[in-house]
Design brief:
By secondary structure, the protein is mostly helical. Helix content is 47%, strand content 0%. The protein contains four helices and no strands.
């Protein structure tokens, strides 16, 4: 990444911000896109924002503020 920023700066090019992240492993929760789609299609959950899921939209619907989600992931 540092060489990418160096090259952008050396060529005086626009350098977009890049975010790197890894998978957040949680026990006893469904976080797989493939499995969540199956749950939605079979009608077990209503949609991606169903409060029983651990998706970002579901957490926001439950009332978790974005700062709390970021702090949880940072730890």
């Amino acid at each position: 990444r540092s060489s990418y920023y160096w090259l952008c700066n050396a060529l005086d090019l626009y350098c977009p911000v890049q975010w790197e992240y890894g998978r957040l492993n949680l026990h006893y929760t469904v976080v797989s896109k493939r499995k969540i789609i199956k749950l939605v299609e079979t009608g077990i959950v209503r949609d991606w924002d169903d409060p029983r899921l651990f998706t970002l939209t579901a957490l926001r619907r439950r009332g978790f503020p974005p700062e709390a989600i970021n702090n949880f992931c940072a730890k």
